[in-house]
Specification:
The protein is an alpha/beta fold. It folds into two domains: about 270 residues, tm_1862 like domain (pyruvate-formate lyase- activating enzyme), CATH 3.80.30; about 80 residues, Orthogonal Bundle (Arc Repressor Mutant, subunit A), CATH 1.10.10. About 40% of the residues lie in helices and about 20% in strands. It is built from 17 helices and 18 strands. The strands form four sheets. It has a nine-stranded mixed beta sheet with strand order 10-11-9-8-7-6-5-2-12. It has a four-stranded antiparallel beta sheet with strand order 1-15-14-13, covered by helices on one side. It has a three-stranded antiparallel beta sheet with strand order 16-18-17. The longest helix is centred in the C-terminal third of the chain and has 21 residues. About 50% of the residues are buried.
């Protein structure tokens, strides 16, 4: 399902690795200049750069954890806030998924839910969780949160509402798979206060779904979604993935039209990411699955979907997310890409605040042991440099489709001059249009958004030290 905080679902491609990632060394922008004469949509670059949040962070040695944990958890954050709850269970391991952790077990998931409630209750006494701005969005992801029993879903959501200072209109998202969304779980979730359902559909085509290890066929999937639309009470969004094995243009266009006619509140469209070691990667290597559509085909699929939903009047919320109704805000996904603080719960969840990021213990048994004895669950912590705020601003603005170079120039003097070769070349290639210091992406620029972000981050790297010497380390804890 959806990866843990701090990043949103990667929108990469099997060929993203190598030569496209920003580094901390001298700026070499040649890799981010478009191919001469290449089509803006299908051939601007040889590959898409991966999203690499916090790549300049300094990993904190384990012996320093106590001091940093005390500083982070012991002070309220002035930033906007969200929370992420990780439920690490799945009934099956989908071929494409890089986030699988534990097989479903009824007793284990029930015990886990009880420990998760205890973790939330204990956190309520900490200034980081208790004080500061109201929490604007909570995301229960995984894994498969709907693998939990109905009463456990209600208990976890109830603990979040009871123990944390949630905003009155807090967006509470429950992510799940279609075969888990039984009527009793829907009723329990709505009764507990869930305001948003996010369902990983990937494709409506039965053959494509079977190849991915999905249980529902097209008819069963459509029946469930229609029931959820009729139930109301929470906004309903789904994920579609383009670039799946066997998903040709006809299948993808049918997926788009089917989604458009369901009465959804919103929809995400993602490019297939093939993570090393996952079943799909092994199947491709062994020649045991149908070919994966090319990068050019992926680009055409993205452009078709964006154009079709625009024709239908859907609102663009980000590079990969569209809303049909005003109920869909996608607030967690919007805020987590900025410098908002994120409170993390559950094994393998990622959090961030006060210029640090951390990851909780991913091993379920070890996480459970620590909860039982009241020990800290932090397994990894990193300290951000001033570049973190710069990188987050670049990424989030390009996600929104309008990059304001002046806002980065204010943080890193000289940035606009350093980025000028890229912005000029991208404009000439049809990836965007400029107005003053702003750069507004085209649909082609949106498809290549991660590569554009990586290029601008690279342009800022040689100038980051100037800001560091000035001591402008925003968001650090006392």
């Amino acid at each position: 399902m959806r990866p843990q905080q701090p990043s949103a679902r990667p929108a990469g491609h099997p060929t993203v690795a190598g030569g496209m990632s920003p580094s901390a060394g001298p700026a070499d922008l040649s890799a981010f200049l478009p191919v001469a004469g290449g089509d803006a949509l299908t051939g601007a670059f040889a590959r898409r750069a991966p999203m690499m949040p916090w790549q300049t962070d300094r990993r904190i040695p384990e012996e320093e954890f106590p001091r940093h944990v005390a500083a982070v958890f012991g002070a309220a954050s002035p930033a906007r806030r969200v929370a992420y709850v990780h439920v690490p269970f799945c009934h099956t391991h989908c071929l494409f998924c890089g986030f699988y952790q534990n097989p479903y077990d009824a007793e284990e998931t029930h015990a886990f839910a009880g420990r998760l409630v205890r973790e939330i209750e204990a956190a309520a006494a900490r200034p980081l969780h208790r004080d500061g701005r109201p929490i604007e969005a909570v995301f229960l992801g995984g894994g498969t949160p709907t693998a939990l029993a109905a009463e456990d879903i209600a208990a976890v959501v109830g603990a979040l509402r009871r123990c944390l200072p949630l905003a009155e209109d807090c967006e509470i998202t429950l992510e799940g798979r279609t075969h888990d969304f039984t009527p009793d779980k829907v009723e329990a979730a709505l009764g507990a206060g869930v305001t948003r359902f996010s369902i990983g559909v990937q494709s409506f085509d039965t053959r494509v779904r079977r190849r991915l290890g999905r249980k529902f066929d097209r008819a069963g999937l459509l029946a469930l979604l229609e029931e959820l639309v009729q139930a109301g009470g929470a906004s309903l969004v789904i994920d579609l993935i383009y670039g799946l094995p066997g998903q040709d243009a006809t299948v993808w266009r049918d997926d788009v039209e089917t989604a458009a006619g369901l009465g959804l509140d919103g929809l995400d469209i993602y490019a297939l990411s093939i993570f090393p070691g996952v079943p799909l990667s092994r199947a491709i290597t062994a020649g045991k699955t149908l070919p994966v559509p090319s990068l050019a085909t992926q680009a055409e699929s993205y452009a078709h979907a964006v154009g079709r939903f625009a024709e239908l009047g859907w609102k663009r919320l980000s590079q990969a997310h569209m809303a049909r109704t005003g109920r869909e805000r996608s607030l967690y996904n919007q805020l987590v890409k900025t410098d908002a603080a994120c409170l993390a719960f559950g094994p393998g969840a990622g959090g961030s605040a006060h210029g640090r990021s951390w990851r909780t213990v991913a091993d379920l048994a070890e996480w459970s042991r620590r909860i039982e004895v009241g020990a800290p669950t932090v397994a990894m912590m990193a300290e951000g440099t001033p570049r973190r705020a710069v990188h987050a601003r670049i990424r989030s603005q390009l996600e929104d489709g309008v990059f304001d170079g002046a806002s980065v120039e204010a943080l890193v003097p000289g940035f606009l001059a350093a980025a000028e070769p890229l912005l000029s070349a991208w404009t000439a290639a049809g990836l965007g249009a400029r107005q003053g210091s702003s750069f507004r992406t085209t649909v082609a620029g949106d498809f290549w958004m991660t590569t554009l972000a990586a290029g601008l981050i690279q342009a800022s790297e040689t100038l980051g030290s100037t800001r560091e010497r000035a001591g402008l380390h925003a968001g650090r804890a006392p």
